[in-house]
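ARCHIVE CARD
Drawer: 12
Card no.: 0347
Subject: one protein chain, sequence and derived structure
Cross-reference: see card 0346
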Amino acid sequence: MEEQKPTEGQASISRRNFLAIGTLSIGGVIGVGIGLPSLVYLVGPSLQANAVQEWIRIGSASKVEIGVPTLYKVKTERRVGWNVTEEELAVYVLTENGSDFTAVSNICTHLGCRVRWIDGKDQFFCPCHNAVFAKNGEVVAGPPPKPLEKYPVKVENDQLYILVGG
């Protein structure tokens, strides 16, 4: 049998090169087909926005005395990528009229220490660096750079909810 030689304008490809190109092409398609979904599965949660806001029930509204901040503690889960952690959230809730409520964090904005309500002085006090906050969470004295964090509050069926996240 006589081997045909390519004419001018035709490319010559050997059987060995054809099989090598075919094998590499099929391997590439399989690699992309498996690798791309795997990459999305592994990296996807870390790329999602963690700005999810949710209303968390903290307790009964009738527990709050008029004019006196009341401490509520609640456990909540926070999801960051694949990592899920349980944290305790503590807030002071205040009402001056029994129907309008405000909630402030009990975490000092200076170094993250816990503040406590001093009843006789009508103010929050942080023992770490003698920071003092007013009843509404504003800085009165000390090193904190900003007021205590405030949370939106809603009341449904005598239950208090605060909006967290975002």
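Annotation on reverse: Residues 12-47 form one domain. The chain has a mean pLDDT of 82.
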